Amino acid sequence: MRVAIAGAGAVGRSIAGELLENGHEVLLIDKAPTAISVERVPMAEWLLADACEITSLDEAALQRCNVVIAATGDDKVNLVVSLLAKTEYGVPRVVARVNNPKNEWLFNESWGVDVAVSTPRLMSALVEEAVSVGDLVRLLRFSHGDANLVELTLPEESALAGTRVSEVEWPEDTSLVTIIRGTRVLTPSPDDSLEAGDELLFVAAQAREEQLEDLLSARRTDAAR
């Protein structure tokens, strides 16, 4: 897979290093000469250019990329790069960094963004995920389809504890994708039973999040105990 990263700062270089270790081709683009540090990521391709300019993106052969990551520290730049990558070069997957959470509403398919990653929001979500039981935590937003990756730890008193996955009437536009049980990561099957303490990961439409949380957090009735 070929990946172009706009922004060769600490974030861009870290992403590049991870992708290279996984066997992908990476091109780092930055307009600041001081950011071009080939020795820090020697296996990557480097381009000194303004990623907001069509001529620069032509030189980068963006049409050959499977993924473009807009990882600069400027939200305006990230939005322009995302829009150009999607509309001018037809890049299948565009991921954009959100620096200011107030701008998160802009990072959607109208600007060519498939996945928006807000570091402040993600850090907050991870803190909530670590300490909350029974509360739905939004981990990641997908622009297409207005869907989110959400997590909930099933509480002891949940009415669904001990229930098979196939027996649960899940809300529309939600999909249980993973069950984390202790050190195990389980791909849910219809015969798997939910257990108290399970960390459940869903892809769910935002409009269904409250309904999903109510379902998972509903307490057993006294008669059912």
TrEMBL record:
Domain RCK C-terminal: 137-218
PROSITE patterns to which the protein is assigned, alphabetical: RCK_C (PS51202), RCK_N (PS51201)
RCK N-terminal domain span: 1-117
NAD among keywords: yes
Keywords, in A-Z order: Ion transport, NAD, Potassium, Potassium transport, Transport
Keyword Coiled coil annotated: no
Alphabetized PANTHER family for the sequence: POTASSIUM CHANNEL PROTEIN 2-RELATED-RELATED (PTHR43833), TRK SYSTEM POTASSIUM UPTAKE PROTEIN TRKA (PTHR43833:SF5)
Protein name: Trk system potassium uptake protein TrkA
Taxonomic source organism: Streptomyces lancefieldiae
